[in-house]
Design brief:
alpha+beta, GMP Synthetase, Chain A, domain 3, 2 domains, two-stranded antiparallel sheet, 4 helices, 42% helix
Length: 186
């Protein structure tokens, strides 16, 4: 027996012991769901703290309301039951502010009738002011790319319900079905 096989032996024994446990698939699924819910809680708490500090503002409200609205719609699918949704984003919402533009154009011609034409354009941008609190005017808010969607539903045991949820999420968020995961709720 060489060194490589000796190193693999404890690992193989461990795998063999795990495979001998009854209902290991169910246990693994429960652990995965617990991890997902734990991560969901951590992310939600971080979003809550960020909103309290005033940095997130309406961004957090938009994200949570999107998740809640989608969960409300999905729960109305026949057989879906109670539904919870988490949407993962790549980055944060980007705010594009409106600007006041000032353009000055100067045209010069020479004394002989205009043979030389010189045009100077100066453009100056300044942030548009909205109110007496000096809050800038927002032109638009750009949502970040959705990187993944997790749906936990009571009725996800049924394949037809899973398929309907998958199609509904892909349509509502305009995302590829490959980034959507659906799990059975306990």
């Amino acid at each position: 027996m060489n060194d490589n096989e000796e190193k693999k032996k404890p690992f193989k024994d461990f795998i063999r012991k795990i495979k001998s446990v009854k209902n290991i698939e169910i246990i693994v699924c429960i652990i995965l769901i617990a991890i997902i819910l734990l991560l969901y809680g951590i992310v939600r708490e971080a979003k809550k703290k960020q909103a309290e500090s005033g940095n997130a503002g309406a961004t957090i409200v938009e994200t949570v309301s999107d998740e809640e609205r989608l969960a409300a719609v999905l729960s109305k699918i026949q057989g879906a039951g109670k539904v919870e949704v988490y949407i993962g984003y790549d980055g944060n919402f980007e705010t594009v502010y409106a600007f006041d533009k000032t353009t000055n154009t100067t045209t010069r011609t020479d004394d002989s009738g205009g043979a030389n034409l010189t045009t100077t354009v100066t453009e100056e941008k300044s942030t548009a002011v909205f109110d007496e609190n000096k809050k800038p005017l927002i032109e638009k808010t750009v949502a970040p790319k959705i990187t993944g969607v997790i749906v936990v539903a009571e009725g996800a045991k049924d394949v037809a319900v899973r398929l309907n949820i998958l199609k509904a999420v892909a349509t509502a968020l305009n995302v590829n079905e490959k980034i959507i995961e659906i799990f059975i709720m306990n």
